[in-house]
Amino acid sequence: MIDLQTMSSMVSVWVVDGGKNILYALVILIVGFWFARYFSRLTRASLDRYKIDPLQAGFLTTIVRYAIIIAVILIAASRIGINITSLIAIFGAAALAIGLAVKDNLSNFSSGMLLVFFRPFTQGDFVEVAGASGTIEITNLFSTVLNTTDNKKVFIPNRLVMNSVIVNYSANDTRRIDLSIGIDYEADIKLAKKTLAKLVKDHSAVLDSPEPLVAVEALADSSINLTVRAWVPSAKYLSTKFELLEESKNALTTQGISIPFPQMDVHLDNP
Question: Phi-psi category of 256—alpha, beta or left, where left has phi over 0 and alpha has psi -120 to 50?
Answer without folding.
Answer: left
